[in-house]
Amino acid sequence: MAGQVKTLVGAKWLAEALKNKRVGPSLRVLDASWYLPKLKRDAREEFAQRHIPGASFFDIDECCDRSSPYDHMLPGEDEFADYVGNLGVGNDTHVVVYDCSDFGSFAAPRVWWMFRFFGHRSVSVLNGGMKNWLHEGRPVTDLLSAPERAQFRAERNAAWVKTYEDVLQNLTNRKFQLVDARVEGRFRGLEPEPREELAEILHTFTEDYQDIK
């Protein structure tokens, strides 16, 4: 495993790494862009048109538990190891993740967390994402790279995940602090839920909560 790395790295740092041709087995750059359907943006198509040189595309819709009816549930250890191995990521690779959100960062922190969950500590998020990268006039390309496959061994940190049953039980035993990271309007039910499938999940959870009260 590579040594301790910073959670955030700047555009200047990554640009210097590109200039010095460090991208390879020891450093991989991943574009983890993902958008809500209502934005009508195709992350993979945008990647093909413009991305940071040497970057590979991390598709959060593919690297997930395909057997689950819910979006973006964590894949198994073997599935994650196989997926990132195909992106050239090994256990000694420093991974830098970014996305092209207008906010500067949206999906990249999720992929950062996935790597950490599967035991990989050498992972960073590009501070400000593609938005800041372009603002600083850093290079982009449409050339696609084909990284050599690497061997990755994943080890789940089960304590980092709570199940539906854990959260439901926590309503009565209060063993951990639960934080809702949605905007206030959605948290208070004052704004419509933009994802229909999530609205149904929240409705089911509310019904289950009423049953245990």
UniProtKB/TrEMBL annotation:
According to the entry, every stretch annotated as the Rhodanese domain falls at 23-142
Looking up Pfam families in the UniProt record yields: Rhodanese (PF00581)
User: A Gene Ontology molecular-function term?
Assistant: thiosulfate-cyanide sulfurtransferase activity
Q: Does the keyword Ligase apply?
A: no
- Gene Ontology cellular component list: mitochondrion
Sorted alphabetically, which keywords does the UniProt record give? Repeat, Transferase
- What PROSITE patterns does the annotation carry? RHODANESE_1 (PS00380), RHODANESE_3 (PS50206)
Record carries keyword Lyase? no
Q: Which InterPro entries match?
A: Rhodanese-like_dom (IPR001763), Rhodanese-like_dom_sf (IPR036873), Thiosulphate_STrfase_CS (IPR001307), TST/MPST-like (IPR045078)
| Listed name of the protein | 3-mercaptopyruvate sulfurtransferase isoform X2
Source species: Ictalurus punctatus
